[in-house]
Protein backbone atom coordinates (compact mmCIF):
# COMPACT_ATOMS: atom_id res chain seq x y z
CA UNK A 1 0.00 0.00 0.00
CA UNK A 2 1.08 3.58 -0.58
CA UNK A 3 2.34 5.60 2.35
CA UNK A 4 -0.51 7.85 3.64
CA UNK A 5 0.11 11.59 3.63
CA UNK A 6 -0.62 11.79 7.38
CA UNK A 7 2.74 10.13 8.05
CA UNK A 8 4.72 12.73 6.12
CA UNK A 9 6.37 15.61 8.00
CA UNK A 10 7.95 18.60 6.26
CA UNK A 11 10.64 20.57 8.11
CA UNK A 12 11.29 23.84 6.27
CA UNK A 13 14.39 25.79 7.24
CA UNK A 14 16.24 26.76 4.08
CA UNK A 15 13.76 26.03 1.25
CA UNK A 16 16.60 25.13 -1.08
CA UNK A 17 17.44 22.27 -3.40
CA UNK A 18 20.31 19.98 -2.46
CA UNK A 19 22.88 18.48 -4.83
CA UNK A 20 24.60 16.04 -2.47
CA UNK A 21 24.91 15.09 1.18
CA UNK A 22 26.97 13.09 3.66
CA UNK A 23 25.70 11.66 6.95
CA UNK A 24 28.01 11.33 9.97
CA UNK A 25 27.24 11.03 13.70
CA UNK A 26 23.61 12.19 13.56
CA UNK A 27 24.49 15.07 11.28
CA UNK A 28 23.80 15.59 7.60
CA UNK A 29 26.23 17.79 5.67
CA UNK A 30 24.31 18.91 2.59
CA UNK A 31 25.50 21.02 -0.33
CA UNK A 32 22.79 23.10 -1.94
CA UNK A 33 22.44 24.27 -5.54
CA UNK A 34 24.20 27.56 -4.71
CA UNK A 35 27.31 25.76 -3.47
CA UNK A 36 26.68 26.44 0.21
CA UNK A 37 26.79 23.93 3.06
CA UNK A 38 23.74 23.28 5.25
CA UNK A 39 24.23 21.15 8.38
CA UNK A 40 21.22 19.27 9.77
CA UNK A 41 21.00 17.73 13.22
CA UNK A 42 19.10 14.44 12.89
CA UNK A 43 18.25 14.44 16.60
CA UNK A 44 16.53 17.83 16.69
CA UNK A 45 15.69 18.06 12.96
CA UNK A 46 17.08 21.58 12.96
CA UNK A 47 19.94 23.28 11.15
CA UNK A 48 23.27 24.03 12.83
CA UNK A 49 25.65 26.94 12.27
CA UNK A 50 28.41 26.19 9.77
CA UNK A 51 31.98 27.48 9.84
CA UNK A 52 32.58 31.05 8.73
CA UNK A 53 34.11 31.22 5.28
CA UNK A 54 34.29 33.52 2.27
CA UNK A 55 31.18 32.53 0.31
CA UNK A 56 32.20 34.86 -2.53
CA UNK A 57 35.61 33.23 -2.96
CA UNK A 58 34.49 29.69 -3.78
CA UNK A 59 31.58 27.27 -3.95
CA UNK A 60 31.45 23.87 -2.30
CA UNK A 61 31.17 21.00 -4.77
CA UNK A 62 31.62 17.85 -2.69
CA UNK A 63 31.77 16.51 0.85
CA UNK A 64 33.60 13.34 1.92
CA UNK A 65 34.73 11.41 4.97
CA UNK A 66 38.05 9.62 5.31
CA UNK A 67 38.70 6.31 7.09
CA UNK A 68 39.29 8.17 10.36
CA UNK A 69 35.89 9.90 10.09
CA UNK A 70 37.46 13.25 9.27
CA UNK A 71 35.16 15.48 7.19
CA UNK A 72 36.47 17.10 3.99
CA UNK A 73 35.01 19.56 1.50
CA UNK A 74 36.07 20.26 -2.09
CA UNK A 75 35.48 23.55 -3.90
CA UNK A 76 35.22 24.87 -7.44
CA UNK A 77 38.59 26.59 -6.97
CA UNK A 78 40.37 23.32 -6.15
CA UNK A 79 40.52 23.81 -2.39
CA UNK A 80 40.46 20.69 -0.21
CA UNK A 81 39.26 21.81 3.22
CA UNK A 82 39.13 19.91 6.51
CA UNK A 83 36.13 20.51 8.72
CA UNK A 84 36.24 19.93 12.49
CA UNK A 85 32.74 19.73 14.00
CA UNK A 86 34.01 20.09 17.56
CA UNK A 87 35.29 23.61 16.80
CA UNK A 88 33.05 24.33 13.79
CA UNK A 89 36.11 25.42 11.83
CA UNK A 90 37.51 24.91 8.34
CA UNK A 91 41.22 24.58 7.62
CA UNK A 92 43.05 24.37 4.31
CA UNK A 93 44.50 20.92 3.54
CA UNK A 94 45.71 21.23 -0.05
CA UNK A 95 45.12 23.11 -3.29
CA UNK A 96 44.42 21.50 -6.67
CA UNK A 97 44.81 23.19 -10.04
CA UNK A 98 41.30 22.19 -10.98
CA UNK A 99 37.92 22.04 -9.30
CA UNK A 100 37.45 19.20 -6.82
CA UNK A 101 34.23 17.66 -8.13
CA UNK A 102 34.41 14.53 -5.98
CA UNK A 103 36.64 13.16 -3.22
CA UNK A 104 36.96 9.73 -1.62
CA UNK A 105 39.51 7.69 0.36
CA UNK A 106 40.67 4.12 -0.16
CA UNK A 107 41.22 1.56 2.61
CA UNK A 108 44.73 2.98 3.19
CA UNK A 109 43.16 6.42 3.67
CA UNK A 110 44.76 7.66 0.44
CA UNK A 111 42.65 10.36 -1.25
CA UNK A 112 41.31 10.05 -4.78
CA UNK A 113 39.67 13.02 -6.49
CA UNK A 114 37.65 13.57 -9.61
CA UNK A 115 38.57 16.73 -11.44
CA UNK A 116 37.23 17.87 -14.83
CA UNK A 117 37.83 14.99 -17.27
CA UNK A 118 40.15 12.91 -15.07
CA UNK A 119 40.54 10.76 -11.99
CA UNK A 120 43.29 12.40 -9.96
CA UNK A 121 45.71 11.41 -7.20
CA UNK A 122 46.22 14.69 -5.28
CA UNK A 123 49.29 13.40 -3.42
CA UNK A 124 51.24 11.92 -6.35
CA UNK A 125 49.71 14.45 -8.73
CA UNK A 126 48.89 11.82 -11.30
CA UNK A 127 45.77 11.65 -13.47
CA UNK A 128 43.94 8.97 -15.43
CA UNK A 129 41.86 9.77 -18.51
CA UNK A 130 42.07 6.77 -20.87
CA UNK A 131 38.85 5.00 -19.91
CA UNK A 132 37.60 2.79 -22.74
CA UNK A 133 34.11 3.66 -23.93
CA UNK A 134 31.93 0.88 -25.31
CA UNK A 135 28.86 2.95 -26.13
CA UNK A 136 28.23 3.03 -29.87
CA UNK A 137 27.60 6.46 -31.29
CA UNK A 138 29.29 8.45 -28.51
CA UNK A 139 32.88 8.95 -29.65
CA UNK A 140 34.88 12.03 -28.74
CA UNK A 141 37.18 13.98 -31.04
CA UNK A 142 40.61 14.63 -29.58
CA UNK A 143 42.91 17.35 -30.82
CA UNK A 144 46.43 16.09 -31.59
CA UNK A 145 49.36 18.53 -31.29
CA UNK A 146 46.92 21.36 -31.83
CA UNK A 147 46.80 20.58 -35.55
CA UNK A 148 44.13 17.98 -36.29
CA UNK A 149 41.38 15.95 -34.64
CA UNK A 150 41.42 12.22 -34.08
CA UNK A 151 38.42 10.12 -33.11
CA UNK A 152 38.91 8.16 -29.90
CA UNK A 153 36.87 5.85 -27.72
CA UNK A 154 39.22 6.32 -24.77
CA UNK A 155 38.38 9.29 -22.61
CA UNK A 156 37.01 10.15 -19.17
CA UNK A 157 33.30 10.85 -18.91
CA UNK A 158 32.53 13.12 -15.92
CA UNK A 159 30.25 10.98 -13.73
CA UNK A 160 26.85 11.83 -12.36
CA UNK A 161 27.08 9.18 -9.64
CA UNK A 162 30.05 7.62 -7.83
CA UNK A 163 30.45 4.73 -5.41
CA UNK A 164 33.51 3.09 -3.81
CA UNK A 165 33.05 -0.56 -2.87
CA UNK A 166 34.79 -2.67 -0.21
CA UNK A 167 37.55 -3.59 -2.69
CA UNK A 168 38.42 0.07 -3.30
CA UNK A 169 36.90 0.01 -6.76
CA UNK A 170 35.52 3.40 -7.70
CA UNK A 171 32.39 3.01 -9.83
CA UNK A 172 31.45 6.07 -11.88
CA UNK A 173 28.31 6.26 -13.99
CA UNK A 174 26.66 8.75 -16.30
CA UNK A 175 23.42 8.65 -18.28
CA UNK A 176 22.59 10.24 -21.63
CA UNK A 177 18.84 9.74 -21.69
CA UNK A 178 17.65 7.77 -24.71
CA UNK A 179 21.26 7.44 -25.90
CA UNK A 180 22.29 5.04 -23.15
CA UNK A 181 24.87 5.43 -20.42
CA UNK A 182 28.40 4.85 -19.28
CA UNK A 183 30.04 2.86 -16.48
CA UNK A 184 33.69 3.54 -15.64
CA UNK A 185 35.67 1.63 -13.00
CA UNK A 186 38.90 2.69 -11.32
CA UNK A 187 40.99 0.56 -8.97
CA UNK A 188 41.75 3.04 -6.17
CA UNK A 189 43.87 0.46 -4.34
CA UNK A 190 46.33 -0.26 -7.16
CA UNK A 191 45.62 2.99 -9.02
CA UNK A 192 44.71 1.69 -12.45
CA UNK A 193 41.77 1.71 -14.84
CA UNK A 194 39.69 -1.48 -14.82
CA UNK A 195 37.86 -3.15 -17.68
CA UNK A 196 34.26 -1.97 -17.77
CA UNK A 197 32.90 -4.35 -20.40
CA UNK A 198 30.34 -6.93 -19.30
CA UNK A 199 28.79 -9.47 -21.65
CA UNK A 200 25.24 -9.01 -20.37
CA UNK A 201 25.30 -5.21 -20.12
CA UNK A 202 24.79 -3.26 -23.34
CA UNK A 203 26.13 0.29 -22.87
CA UNK A 204 23.60 1.57 -25.38
CA UNK A 205 20.72 0.13 -23.37
CA UNK A 206 21.77 0.91 -19.80
CA UNK A 207 20.63 4.10 -18.11
CA UNK A 208 22.58 3.93 -14.81
CA UNK A 209 21.02 5.47 -11.72
CA UNK A 210 23.17 4.01 -8.94
CA UNK A 211 25.78 1.46 -7.93
CA UNK A 212 25.80 -0.17 -4.51
CA UNK A 213 27.19 -3.23 -2.74
CA UNK A 214 25.07 -6.05 -1.38
CA UNK A 215 25.76 -9.24 0.56
CA UNK A 216 28.85 -11.32 -0.31
CA UNK A 217 30.44 -8.34 -2.04
CA UNK A 218 28.07 -8.44 -5.01
CA UNK A 219 27.71 -5.16 -6.90
CA UNK A 220 24.29 -3.97 -8.07
CA UNK A 221 23.60 -1.41 -10.79
CA UNK A 222 20.14 0.11 -11.15
CA UNK A 223 19.08 1.42 -14.53
CA UNK A 224 15.94 3.23 -15.64
CA UNK A 225 14.42 5.69 -18.07
CA UNK A 226 11.10 7.19 -19.08
CA UNK A 227 11.17 7.63 -22.85
CA UNK A 228 7.57 7.45 -24.12
CA UNK A 229 7.12 4.56 -21.64
CA UNK A 230 8.77 3.38 -18.43
CA UNK A 231 11.62 0.91 -18.24
CA UNK A 232 13.93 -0.33 -15.53
CA UNK A 233 16.57 -2.99 -14.94
CA UNK A 234 18.74 -4.18 -12.06
CA UNK A 235 22.06 -5.91 -12.71
CA UNK A 236 24.18 -7.95 -10.32
CA UNK A 237 27.94 -8.36 -10.75
CA UNK A 238 29.37 -11.15 -8.61
CA UNK A 239 32.89 -11.53 -7.21
CA UNK A 240 34.08 -13.24 -10.41
CA UNK A 241 33.00 -10.27 -12.52
CA UNK A 242 30.03 -12.05 -14.09
CA UNK A 243 27.08 -9.72 -14.68
CA UNK A 244 23.45 -10.82 -14.81
CA UNK A 245 20.18 -8.96 -15.14
CA UNK A 246 18.15 -9.98 -12.08
CA UNK A 247 15.12 -7.74 -12.60
CA UNK A 248 13.52 -6.02 -15.57
CA UNK A 249 10.32 -4.05 -16.06
CA UNK A 250 9.03 -2.25 -19.16
CA UNK A 251 5.99 -1.55 -21.26
CA UNK A 252 3.49 1.29 -21.75
CA UNK A 253 0.64 2.21 -19.43
CA UNK A 254 -2.66 0.84 -20.76
CA UNK A 255 -6.02 2.50 -20.15
CA UNK A 256 -9.52 1.38 -21.16
CA UNK A 257 -10.64 3.99 -23.71
CA UNK A 258 -14.31 4.16 -22.79
CA UNK A 259 -14.09 4.14 -18.99
CA UNK A 260 -10.57 5.47 -18.42
CA UNK A 261 -9.89 2.53 -16.12
CA UNK A 262 -6.21 1.60 -15.82
CA UNK A 263 -5.70 -1.89 -17.20
CA UNK A 264 -1.94 -2.05 -16.69
CA UNK A 265 0.36 0.50 -15.04
CA UNK A 266 3.16 -0.56 -17.37
CA UNK A 267 6.83 -0.80 -16.55
CA UNK A 268 8.68 0.71 -13.61
CA UNK A 269 11.00 3.65 -14.19
CA UNK A 270 13.76 2.59 -11.78
CA UNK A 271 16.02 5.10 -10.09
CA UNK A 272 18.77 4.76 -7.45
CA UNK A 273 18.94 1.89 -4.99
CA UNK A 274 20.62 0.85 -1.74
CA UNK A 275 21.12 -2.29 0.36
CA UNK A 276 19.68 -2.56 3.88
CA UNK A 277 21.63 -4.97 6.11
CA UNK A 278 18.86 -4.90 8.71
CA UNK A 279 16.42 -6.91 6.58
CA UNK A 280 18.75 -8.19 3.81
CA UNK A 281 16.74 -6.36 1.15
CA UNK A 282 17.60 -4.01 -1.66
CA UNK A 283 15.48 -0.89 -1.95
CA UNK A 284 15.06 1.07 -5.16
CA UNK A 285 13.22 4.22 -6.15
CA UNK A 286 10.69 4.39 -8.97
CA UNK A 287 8.20 6.95 -10.25
CA UNK A 288 5.57 4.93 -8.38
CA UNK A 289 7.27 4.84 -5.00
CA UNK A 290 10.15 3.10 -3.26
CA UNK A 291 10.16 -0.69 -3.47
CA UNK A 292 12.13 -3.36 -1.66
CA UNK A 293 13.23 -6.77 -2.86
CA UNK A 294 14.52 -9.60 -0.67
CA UNK A 295 17.96 -11.07 -1.36
CA UNK A 296 17.55 -14.23 0.72
CA UNK A 297 19.84 -17.03 -0.49
CA UNK A 298 21.25 -14.53 -2.99
CA UNK A 299 18.06 -14.73 -5.04
CA UNK A 300 15.88 -11.66 -5.60
CA UNK A 301 12.30 -11.87 -4.40
CA UNK A 302 9.22 -10.10 -5.71
CA UNK A 303 9.25 -6.28 -5.45
CA UNK A 304 7.14 -4.91 -2.60
CA UNK A 305 6.00 -1.29 -2.39
CA UNK A 306 7.26 0.34 0.82
CA UNK A 307 6.36 4.04 0.52
CA UNK A 308 4.96 6.26 -2.19
CA UNK A 309 5.40 9.92 -1.23
CA UNK A 310 4.24 12.66 -3.60
CA UNK A 311 7.34 14.27 -5.11
CA UNK A 312 7.84 17.14 -7.55
CA UNK A 313 9.40 16.24 -10.87
CA UNK A 314 10.91 17.86 -13.95
CA UNK A 315 11.53 16.89 -17.56
CA UNK A 316 14.34 14.57 -18.65
CA UNK A 317 16.50 16.68 -21.02
CA UNK A 318 17.62 13.75 -23.22
CA UNK A 319 14.41 11.74 -23.42
CA UNK A 320 10.68 12.16 -23.92
CA UNK A 321 9.56 11.79 -20.33
CA UNK A 322 10.07 12.89 -16.75
CA UNK A 323 13.35 12.93 -14.84
CA UNK A 324 13.85 10.73 -11.78
CA UNK A 325 12.77 12.62 -8.65
CA UNK A 326 15.14 10.73 -6.32
CA UNK A 327 18.88 11.07 -6.95
CA UNK A 328 20.47 9.08 -4.14
CA UNK A 329 19.56 6.55 -1.44
CA UNK A 330 21.52 5.18 1.51
CA UNK A 331 20.85 3.37 4.77
CA UNK A 332 22.19 4.18 8.21
CA UNK A 333 23.39 1.34 10.42
CA UNK A 334 20.06 1.26 12.28
CA UNK A 335 18.07 0.77 9.08
CA UNK A 336 16.94 4.38 8.64
CA UNK A 337 16.64 5.27 4.96
CA UNK A 338 17.94 8.61 3.67
CA UNK A 339 17.10 9.73 0.15
CA UNK A 340 18.00 12.85 -1.80
CA UNK A 341 15.28 14.32 -4.02
CA UNK A 342 15.62 16.83 -6.84
CA UNK A 343 13.04 19.30 -5.51
CA UNK A 344 11.74 18.11 -2.13
CA UNK A 345 14.85 18.18 0.02
CA UNK A 346 16.32 15.22 1.89
CA UNK A 347 13.93 12.46 2.87
CA UNK A 348 14.18 10.34 6.03
CA UNK A 349 12.14 7.14 6.34
CA UNK A 350 12.06 5.58 9.80
CA UNK A 351 9.44 3.62 11.75
CA UNK A 352 6.73 4.18 9.15
CA UNK A 353 7.21 7.96 8.99
CA UNK A 354 8.72 10.14 6.26
CA UNK A 355 10.38 13.43 7.15
CA UNK A 356 11.53 15.87 4.49
CA UNK A 357 14.29 18.36 5.34
CA UNK A 358 13.93 21.42 3.13
UniProtKB/TrEMBL annotation:
SUPFAM superfamilies: NHL repeat (SSF101898). InterPro entries: WD40/YVTN_repeat-like_dom_sf (IPR015943). It comes from the Bacteria. This is SMP-30/Gluconolactonase/LRE-like region domain-containing protein.
